[in-house]
Amino acid sequence: MLALATDYGDVEILEEDLSSITEAELKKLRITRSELNRAFAEGVRLMKSRSDSVRPVAHQTFDGTWRVDLFRYSPTSDQLMQRRLS
């Protein structure tokens, strides 16, 4: 799972969702398919041997590139766990 920080709030993207995201959705999220795939792969790499209390979040930096960092969260109070891309 990768959380993508967007103008619309954080959006959760699961691995099985990657291939079904449309070009229109990518445009709305302001990310290219190659950037999304790279960010997802980076998130997977960062999550190796990490606890369930962190999640990878991709966010756009001031220079327009996408960066992935790990953020702590509480699964019991996390609003993102109920949010899906739509």
Description of the molecule:
The protein is α+β, with helices and mostly antiparallel strands and 86 residues long. It has one domain. 26% of the residues lie in helices and 28% in strands. It has helices at 23-29, 33-47, and strands spanning 2-6, 9-13, 54-60, 66-72. It has a four-stranded mixed beta sheet with strand order 2-1-3-4, covered by helices on one side. A hairpin with a 5-residue loop joins strand 3 and strand 4 (66-72). It starts with a strand and ends in a 14-residue tail after the last strand.
Could you provide a short overview of the structure?
This protein is α+β, with helices and mostly antiparallel strands. Helices cover 26% and strands 28% of the residues.
List the helices and strands and how they pair.
Blueprint: E1 2-6, E2 9-13, H1 23-29, H2 33-47, E3 54-60, E4 66-72
Parallel strand pairs: 1-3
Antiparallel strand pairs: 1-2, 3-4
Overview features:
about 90 residues; alpha+beta; globular
Helix % is 25-40%
Strand order in the sheet with the most strands = 2-1-3-4
Number of E-state strands: 4
List the domain count as a whole number.
Answer: 1
Note the run of SSEs as H and E.
EEHHEE
Shape: globular
Mean of residue pLDDT values:
85
Radius of gyration: 12 Å
Number of helices: 2
**Low-confidence runs of at least 5 consecutive residues:** none
